[in-house]
Design brief:
Elements lengths: L14 H7 L8 E2 L2 H6 L13 E3 L4 H14 L3 E4 L14 E4 L7 E4 L4 E4 L5 H8 L4 E2 L12 H6 L13 H4 E7 L5 E3 L5 H8 L1 H15 L2 H10 L11 H5 L3 H9 L8 E8 L1 E2 L3 E9 L2 H6 L1 H6 L4 E6 H6 L18 E9 L2 H15 L9 E3 L2 H12 L1 H8 L7 E6 L5 H15 L5 E5 L4 E6 L6 H21 L11 H4 L3 H5 L1 H14 L30 H5 L19 H17 L3 H17 L6 H5 L6 H12 L2 H12 L1 H22 L1 H15 L28 E4 L2 H6 L10 H11 L4 E2 L11 H5 L3 H18 L7 E3 L2 H9 L6 H9 L2 E3 H9 L8 E8 L2 H5 L3 H11 E5 L13 H4 L1 H7 L1 H8 L5 E4 L2 H11 L4 E2 H8 L2
Parallel strand pairs: 2-4, 3-4, 19-20, 19-21, 21-22, 23-24, 23-25, 25-26
Antiparallel strand pairs: 1-2, 5-6, 6-10, 7-11, 8-9, 8-10, 12-14, 12-15, 13-14, 13-17, 16-18, 17-18
Helix pairs in contact: 7-8, 8-11, 8-22, 18-19, 24-25, 28-34, 29-30, 32-44, 37-39, 39-44
């Protein structure tokens, strides 16, 4: 089974390494268990290497010591930020340095004109930091929601708009770095040039010497100038030697695109660019690729910032997808399309751009009349076409196949011919699923293929394809083998083919200057092995649907509540793959045992199963659903039946919860919360089972009014969640409970609300679903829907739910219902309280805005319903200043998981809590009671439902 061409088959560890590492870092920041190392053996590429250890340093001093450790032990060292690298730059069988947890520092400079960022900041978060200044960073990779600044700089990542003008190379101003020899330099220091010459004289003089050699070779200098007029990330940034004269300036720009092979970037200052609020977007169809390419110069001359090309195969791959235009269907086989967007800072500029665009359209050979729009919703639909291409191929590929997305550059004048020849290559090697798309105005094309790489013949076919591709792009067309993804392992053997022997020798000399021992990310960029692109290929055994569809891109990781504690969704999936591979091959019994023993806690217990990962996943994998199914499979039949019995008598469970909360508060009042928590921990030790841990954030029980008006005269049915019924007391003494607060708001708005007396004892079923008690969940959901049908007078009255998580469950988890229940569900009008307040109550309320500052925590359920915008509008009407934290994440409370595993909530809320506590607010609000408990635990601030905010301003 499988084909893993790798020298290190087992996740073995030299035990002396950990002992020596513990002299540098505390034990908790050294990961050496096999399950941990296998989890980090994957990035977004097709390569796979098992690190000897994963370390998590926090400052440059520790980086210096790790460099020394690497040289002492002769062990390779590789830096990893987001792990979204597509060419294998962030895997190693040596020491993997994880920067994603602690390198989050940032400083806004000159009112946003510049920004200093550490390597662990996600690119999209950097833009959120700059948004109040109406600024943004230049690089705009498609992975910006997951890629981190360290990788964006190291790979000189670009994207749809930034081209070669706004990328990291062009917008970098200064950098703090650490060299492999331990030397540290801040290029912003006025004495940096002198310090460089004094602290690293061989490197400084070596860079000056290489520059002289380039200037003395006119043909090479001309080649460099020509190749960087379009995107090119093959090899080192030789343009630094042509563009700059001083060694320190050459160094600064050489580090951009060096793929972590020359040194460590501890922070960088980037010049920022304006945000473009005005956009004019159109999808243009052409009869041939040649016609599309002939349109590029006129479109770019007219000011178009984005020009995305798509071949017919790529358009076919998204035909019929929900929300996409029907115009994609029935196109001729030779069709090509351009997605064009004009972006402007001011409305006057926008008017000019629109006029010029319309005039330009008249000169193009279009297959159909152009369809331009200014509407943001329609623009989003058009961009869904372009952004859906990669996922469409990834999700449809056969199980066990890899997804490879490569990026090349053809000369603009010959791009149409290049596309045709590339399509012929796909046919020649049997990659009939391949699609081509890309950033046309830069001559940058992406193609996606899905090869099978689990046996030797398939790998040889892939090798033949790559060599034919290299000959086509580099030799026949004089293009670039890598445009924006970095050289990596896949192209490293072919750098000399593209650049020639003189330039390649200079690249070898650059590597030797910085890393003479060849220990820093070896094999990337400079690699003498002509078959290096075939080494360390990732095995992809067939496991299960969620796992088999995963492309391991890592887009999900920043959304995961447990990513700072145990595993990410990607890691949960890759460990499933590793376990199957190890079990079938028997290659590492110790590693398999470690995965099997550790997966229960790291993979299952600490998964919040909130499903936010699916919202970031290109192929919409909900790893939470996978984990819930695994939990279900782990339950014995007797346990499932016990859960089903509880579901059928949910009122007993609800009353038991109310009694437990009352008892906890009573004991707490007598002994303090610490004593109650310690009782739980003692019980855990004695029973060997996880028990609830009490904390002083748990709200008190309530005795709410459960009847108001009657169904006959009511205009809405209010269904209080079971949590609100059992423990909906406000954290502020003397304040109304949650249910009464909703009723007061309804009264003030003149709304007639009815709470059915039978509400107690009914639930959305989420507590059973999240734990894998499927039968109990289905029973609960069925019973509640039948009651909703009765209470709502067969769907005549809307049903409002005060918990966003419950509302989301009731709205979305209906696929397992019977056809009869599905019919009922489809006729119900289920409303989250956010919707009801925003759409129905707010226009009827007399609101007096408070001169206050409030912070919101829209929970996962609200965000998955796309209600964050409505919640924000409600709060902005009520308060002068409203903040949604940049580091807004799932709180990890996950129903009751925060009481069972409080460390999950503590980890999940760490960044958001730090951000919230850095300022003072008059109010703290959320949309779900248990999430409010989690945020109170994290911040010790009185988080309450947003309903309290509305009630306060309508008194």
């Amino acid at each position: 089974m499988g084909y893993r061409n790798q020298t290190l088959l087992k996740a073995g560890l030299r035990m002396d390494l950990r002992k020596d590492l513990e002299t540098i870092l505390p034990s908790k920041r050294i990961l050496t268990q096999p399950i941990e190392r296998y989890a980090y053996a994957h990035d977004a590429s097709v390569y796979h290497m098992i690190p000897q250890a994963v370390v998590q340093p926090v400052d440059a001093s520790e980086i210096q010591q790790l460099f020394s450790f690497s040289h002492t032990h002769r062990i390779p060292l590789v830096f990893r930020a987001g792990g979204t690298s597509l060419a294998g730059q962030s895997v190693t069988d040596g020491l993997l340095v994880d920067l994603s947890k602690h390198w989050l520092g940032h400083t806004i400079l000159d009112q946003g004109a510049r920004v200093e960022l550490q390597p662990g900041i996600v690119g999209a978060d950097a833009n959120l930091l700059l948004k109040p200044s109406n600024r943004r960073i230049g690089p705009d990779p498609a992975s910006i929601d997951a890629a981190m600044i360290g990788g964006i700089l190291a790979n000189n990542s670009s994207g749809m708009c930034c081209g070669v003008i706004e990328n990291a190379y062009r917008t970098i101003q200064s950098m703090k770095m650490v060299f492999p020899n331990g030397f540290r330099l801040d290029t912003a220091d006025p004495l940096a040039a002198h310090q460089f010459m004094e602290g690293a004289p061989s490197i400084a003089s070596g860079l000056a010497e290489i520059r002289k050699r380039i200037l003395a070779n006119p043909a090479l200098r001309q080649k460099i100038e020509h190749k960087y007029q379009t995107k090119n990330t093959t090899g080192y940034s030789l343009n630094a030697f042509v563009d700059f004269t001083e060694p320190v300036d050459i160094l600064l720009h050489l580090m951009v695109g060096s793929e972590g092979t020359l040194g460590f970037i501890s922070s960088a200052v980037l010049r920022t660019l304006p945000i473009y609020p005005y956009k004019y977007t159109g999808l243009l169809f052409f009869a041939t690729m040649q016609d599309a390419c002939d349109a590029l110069v006129p479109l770019e001359s007219s000011g178009a910032r984005a020009i995305e090309v798509m071949d017919r195969a790529s358009l076919r791959s998204v035909e019929g997808h929900p929300g996409l235009p029907a115009t994609l269907e029935g196109l001729p086989e030779t069709t090509a399309a351009l997605l064009v967007e004009y972006q402007c800072v001011t409305f006057d500029e926008f008017n000019q751009a629109r006029t010029l665009a319309q005039a330009t359209m008249k000169s193009l050979r279009l297959l159909r009349p152009p369809d331009f729009t200014e509407d943001p919703g329609q623009q989003l639909q058009l961009w869904k076409i372009r952004k859906g291409l990669f996922p469409s191929i990834g999700s449809a590929r056969p199980a066990g196949t890899s997804v490879i997305i490569e990026d090349i550059t053809f000369p603009l004048a010959r791009m149409a011919d290049g596309v045709t020849d590339l399509q012929r290559l796909f046919d020649r090697f049997g990659f009939h699923e391949a699609i081509i798309f890309g950033h046309a105005k830069d001559g940058n094309l992406h193609f996606v293929i899905t090869p099978y790489l689990n046996d030797a013949p398939s790998i040889e076919r892939y090798d033949d394809f790559m060599r034919a591709l290299v000959d086509l792009v580099a030799n026949q067309y004089g293009g670039a083998l890598k445009a924006e993804h970095g050289t990596g392992r896949n192209i490293a053997p072919f750098v000399a083919t593209e650049w020639g022997s003189d330039a390649y020798q200079m690249m070898r000399d650059i590597k030797a200057l910085f890393d003479p021992d060849g220990l820093l990310n070896p094999g990337v960029i400079i690699n003498p092995d002509e078959r290096a692109h075939l080494q360390y290929l990732k095995p992809l055994p067939v496991v299960e649907p969620e796992v088999d569809r995963c492309m391991e891109c890592g887009f999900c990781e920043s959304r995961c509540p447990s990513h700072r504690l145990t595993l990410t969704p990607r890691q949960r999936i890759v460990l499933r793959r590793e376990a199957v591979y190890l079990e079938e091959t028997g290659s590492d019994p110790e590693g398999l045992a470690s995965i099997q023993a550790g997966y229960r806690y790291s993979g299952m217990d600490t998964c919040a199963a909130d499903g936010l990962c699916a919202s970031a996943c290109p192929v919409e994998i909900n790893t939470g659903d996978l984990i819930k199914r695994l939990r279900e499979e782990s339950h014995a039949d007797v346990v499932q039946n016990q859960a089903l019995a509880l579901a059928r008598h949910f009122g007993l469970l609800e009353n038991g919860m109310r009694v437990a909360v009352s008892t906890g508060h009573l004991v707490e009042s007598l002994t303090g919360p610490g004593f109650v928590t310690e009782i739980s921990r003692v019980g855990e030790r004695l029973s060997g089972q996880r028990l609830f841990k009490w904390n002083d954030s748990v709200p008190g029980p309530v005795s709410p009014r459960l009847k108001k008006y009657s169904r006959e005269i009511a205009e809405v049915v209010y269904f209080p969640s079971c949590m609100a019924r059992a423990m909906g007391a406000s954290p502020r003494p003397g304040e109304r409970n949650l249910i009464d607060t909703f009723l007061v708001l309804a009264e003030r708005g003149g709304a007639r609300v009815w709470i059915p007396e039978e509400s107690p004892g009914h639930c959305c079923g989420m507590p059973f679903s999240s734990k894998g008690y499927t039968k109990a969940f289905e029973q609960t959901l069925h019973t509640t829907l039948i009651k909703f049908w009765e209470w709502s007078d067969h769907g005549r009255l809307p049903v409002v739910i005060d918990s966003s998580s419950c509302a989301y469950t009731l709205k979305s988890d209906h696929k397992s219902l019977s056809p009869e229940d599905q019919a009922i569900w489809s006729q119900l009008n289920l409303l989250d309280a956010i919707e009801y307040v925003h759409d129905s109550l707010m226009p009827r309320l007399a609101i007096r805005q408070m001169p206050s500052s409030v912070v919101l925590h829209p929970n996962c359920g609200a965000r998955k319903q796309d209600l964050e915008g409505k919640l924000l509008k409600i709060a902005q009407v009520c308060a002068r200043k409203v903040t949604v934290p940049i580091h807004l994440d799932c709180c990890g409370f996950a129903g009751d998981r925060g009481l069972l595993f409080p460390e999950l909530t503590q980890s999940a809320t760490e960044l958001e809590a730090h951000e919230v506590l850095s300022e003072s607010y008059d109010g703290y609000y959320s949309t779900n009671l248990t999430c409010e408990i989690g945020m109170r635990m994290a911040t010790h601030k009185p988080y309450r439902s947003f309903l309290y905010l509305v009630e306060e301003v309508t008194r």
